[in-house]
Amino acid sequence: MQLLASEGINLPTEVVERGIDAYMLHMDVGSVRIRTPSEEKRIAGVFRGNGPRGSERALRVGFDRYLLDLAASSGAQVVRSLVTRVGWHEDRPEIEHGGGKRACYDLVALAAGVNSQLLQNGCDAAPGYSFPGTLTTFISEFHLGQAAIQASLGDAMHIFLLDLPRLEFAALIPKGDYVTLCVLGHDVDEKLVDAFLAAPEVKRCFPDSKVPELVCHCFPRLNVRPPAQPYADRLVWIGDCGVARLYKDGIGSAYRMAKAAARTAAFHGVSAQDFEAHYAPTCKAMNWDNTLARLVFMSTTAIQKLRPLRRGVLRMTATEQANREQFHHMSSVLWDVFTGSAPYQDVLVRSCHPGFIASLAWNLVAGNVAALAGKPYGNGS
């Protein structure tokens, strides 16, 4: 929320479903609550679209709709029509939409996302464009009501690092009367989702430890490998169809890349050479950060797979959270891994700090000795 505010974007109450002021990390060895660092870096829970199926949205505004209206209030002309094809007419890109209507533009920014058929079937303007590498995810909604959500989940996002085959990451996010479930992994399917929902660590997050019926669900794809060249003459790809941060803040990535593309177009030009000189460096910087992100997520995978390491991480985090005066090495790293609030390079550098390594080593020993002695940590499990 602070990052948006620094750009002059202040989210109104009708957009924010719930303010998130903490993360709850769940593992088989216990759970620990991680507060926002220095009471900053707060997170807003929002719905990107119109909300879950059957939800009442009369008094609410989706996040994407709010941003679109904000752009329109600044002078953008919004044409509410489905784009079916992007081609060329003479020397300019041509957009076809709404029953065969066509219009030419000096520059076209494609921000269609990787789940759009336009990129695969309707983009004739750049035959050399390579579709991004993708990963299938699972998104669903549960209806609990605000009172039940406050009692069971509170104002925290619940993160799960469980040793389940193919599971990379999972989270429960409270939003108004609903709870959003996000599951990332390899070849995510209903079998993996069922195994996750059957885990006792997950069941405990719901009233009476019973997982309710899904209101709606989908298996969208996520950008995990960018196209070789997300730009061409008079064309630029933004967001998930271009370069995006690995597993994180697609809207934030799109915003940063859009700013870089806009600077290029406004101050230099719209040719492929202009984008190569002034837009590509931002793409390469984000791609490099994503390379480092893979190292970071290798570490989280190790935590999932190694119980002794999970005990050390749990003890180190719980000790930091119990002492506000202590420097929060592990807590700050975990917060930024979960939220994407900091570049992955910064996360990796902090993970290599001597203080981080020394504290983790000590807590690995102490946590596992305590476990052998039968002493609980975290939530006591």
Task: Give your account of this protein's structure.
The chain is α+β, with helices and mostly antiparallel strands and 381 residues long. The chain has 3 domains: 2-62 and 133-222, D-Amino Acid Oxidase, Chain A, domain 2, CATH 3.30.9; 79-132 and 226-292, FAD/NAD(P)-binding domain (3-Layer(bba) Sandwich); 306-372, no CATH class. It is built from 13 helices and 16 strands. It has helices at residues 2-6, 63-73, 117-121, 146-152, 190-197, 200-203, 250-267, 272-278, 280-305, 307-322, 329-339, 344-351, 354-372, and strands at residues 18-20, 22-27, 30-35, 43-45, 83-89, 92-97, 101-104, 108-110, 133-143, 156-160, 167-175, 178-185, 214-218, 221-225, 231-232, 235-237. Strands 2, 3, 9, 10, 11, 12, 13 and 14 form an 8-stranded mixed beta sheet that branches. A 3-stranded antiparallel beta sheet has the order 5-6-7, with no helix packed on it. Strand 5 and strand 6 form a beta hairpin. Helix 9 (280-305) crosses helix 12 (344-351). The longest helix is centred in the C-terminal third of the chain and has 26 residues, at 280-305.
